[in-house]
Write a structure and sequence with these properties.
The strands form two sheets. This protein has a six-stranded mixed beta sheet with strand order 6-7-8-9-11-10. Strands 1-2-3-4-5 form a five-stranded mixed beta sheet, with no helix packed on it. It is built from five helices and eleven strands.
């Protein structure tokens, strides 16, 4: 299966990449566009038109940079991207007001999006109140467009990883992957050939969980994992799992196609 990919990224001096928006325009014979405009997060997709194509953008690590988020959304709209997958760290401290401001910006742009939290988005949770859930409704989800299944996993809690409820849910979602084309999205990458800034960096227990997840995704024939967190663009295959990490929206993006 062939993907036509356009990558937009920001390079600073010394080749530090801090912004990347991955664009995907899958082949028309298998991939179909969403059934209508302004599909809200976590909504069930409408019936899909055959013999058409769609494209989507992957962004992360906004860190409350509202100005550059808007620049990014303007570019996505101008390029007629169908929807966005946002993979965490919308905020700097995870405060309720930060999350609400991000949601207001996203909703006002009327571009369909699907979203999960990053570690920064969970920092301000108090008294077991999940501000991300309070703002966006769900913190992990899946959806399907044509024969492509998108699985968005919340691994933003560096001390817990995935709780048992989400593990059970993920088992169910991955059971479809041998017969579908599955793409998985998380905030923290499960491994990296050069960086230790991955799932489990603060907990041996969570690191062990990350290793188990790698084996689980590979066994389920997941085609690719997309992650943020490390703030630079890379694509690699490690322990049998293909991973693409993107950069950060935060700070003065310069677009290069």
């Amino acid at each position: 299966m062939k993907f036509f990919r356009r990558i937009l990224f920001l390079s600073l001096i010394f080749l530090i990449v801090i912004l990347v928006v991955n664009y995907f325009s899958p082949g028309a014979n298998l991939f179909h566009p969403p059934g209508g405009k302004n599909i809200p997060p976590a909504a069930n997709p409408l019936p899909l038109a055959p013999s058409q194509s769609y494209s989507f953008a992957v962004i992360s690590d906004i860190h409350s940079d509202y100005k550059n988020l808007q620049k990014t959304l303007d570019r996505i709209r101008s390029d007629k991207i169908n929807f966005i997958v946002i993979i965490g760290d919308l905020t700097t401290l995870g405060k309720l007001k930060e999350l609400q401001t991000i949601k207001t910006i996203l909703d006002s742009n009327q571009i369909p999006y699907y979203i999960i939290p990053g570690n920064h988005d969970l920092w301000s949770n108090k008294n077991k109140t999940n501000y991300f859930q309070e703002t966006f409704g769900v913190d992990y989800q899946s959806f399907q467009k044509g024969q492509i299944k998108f699985i968005l996993v919340n691994n933003g809690d560096g001390l817990v990883g995935l709780d048992q409820i989400q593990k059970t849910w993920l088992d169910q979602q991955l059971s479809d992957c041998p017969k579908l084309y599955c793409l998985v999205f998380m905030h923290e990458p499960l491994n990296n050939p050069t960086s230790k800034h991955v799932m489990g960096e603060d907990s041996l227990l969570v690191a062990s969980q990350a290793g188990t997840l790698v084996k689980q995704l590979v066994s389920a024939q997941v085609k690719e994992l997309f992650a943020g967190h490390i703030h630079y663009l890379s694509t690699y295959t490690l322990d049998g799992l293909k991973t693409t990490t993107d950069g950060a929206i935060k700070d003065n993006p310069i677009w290069v196609e």
